[in-house]
Amino acid sequence: MVADSATMAFAPAVPPLRKVAFKAGKKERVATVAKRYGASAGQVTQWHEVDAGALFKAGQTVVVYTPTKPVRVASKQAPRTSVKGRPVAASPSAPVRLASTAR
To answer: Quick one: pLDDT at residue 95?
Structure first.
């Protein structure tokens, strides 16, 4: 049996958010926090239940929710290093010189 009056609701396409917490500095305002983290001042005021012109106390923990960063593909490979942190030869076919012990 098929329902004739069924409706389907889709969730809005909102990117996943990550929670970022930090300690407020001196004279840290809602607007400066919003600008720094790419949120609106309205969002920050809702998250902290404060007025738009509010001033956070120095050392107060402030939480914002920002979109997760897209994964970037590195264009250049990082130089390889050995376990001791020394650079490894760029190519396995590169000549290796050994120090001679005889003089």
So the answer is: 59
77 and 46 Cβ atoms separated by less than 8 Å? no
All residues at 6 or more sequence positions from 48 whose CB lies less than 8 Å from its CB, including other chains: 30, 54, 56, 62, 63
Q: What is the pTM of this model?
A: 0.53
Q: Could you identify the residue written with the tokens 């120090």?
A: 99
> Measured between alpha carbons, how far apart are the two ends of the chain, in Å?
95
Give the pLDDT confidence of 85-95 residue by residue, as tens digits. Answer: 666 555 555 55
As given in the structure block, the two tokens for residue 83 are 């376990």
Tokens at residue 33, please? 């926090």
CB 56 within 8 A of CB 33: yes
Report the candidate in 55, 31, 28 with the shortest Cα–Cα distance to residue 43: 31
Q: In terms of pLDDT, which residue wins out, 56 or 87?
A: 56
